[in-house]
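Entry type: protein chain
Record version: 2
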Amino acid sequence: MRLTTLLSAEEYMKLNEDALSRGFYRDDPRIFTPGMGWLNPWHYDPTGERERAGLHVMHKHADRGKTHFLSVHYWNDWSDIRAPIIVVCPNGEQWEIDRKSSNGNGWVVIGEWPYITCTPSIVVPGYHGFLKDGEFTPDLENRGLYGVMREVVSQEPLSDKPPIAEDPDKKDPFP
């Protein structure tokens, strides 16, 4: 399972808005599929544009480098270059590669999308493995190739057309 699409924040929000309007859930794993990722400038925006526009940002530029929930590795290596990233793991669970981990300082991220390597291993509900050069390893706990798939409560979408991300000029949902 390889990393595929990296969405901008605007593409991510549009895809979610379109999915919701069609009866899917927010961040529905039928829309946000394994290997996808998106930038999260509402956590921290290295350009400062969101903050200047008065939009929601969890870490303001004045707080740059104060770890909070973002890892020291993100602040040292990536915070001048890109916003934090969320990735959909092989089993459909979301993982924030630039956060602190539950058992340490977080993941060291090397490389650029889609050829990212993260260490140490990833543990999300139902999957334990590595991301090396943009490819997830099989589950290390022998729960199937890509672990236990995230369950989706059955809900019929209001439309059979797949959501389309097309309007990057979308209003910010976190004013």
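Comment: The mean pLDDT is 86.
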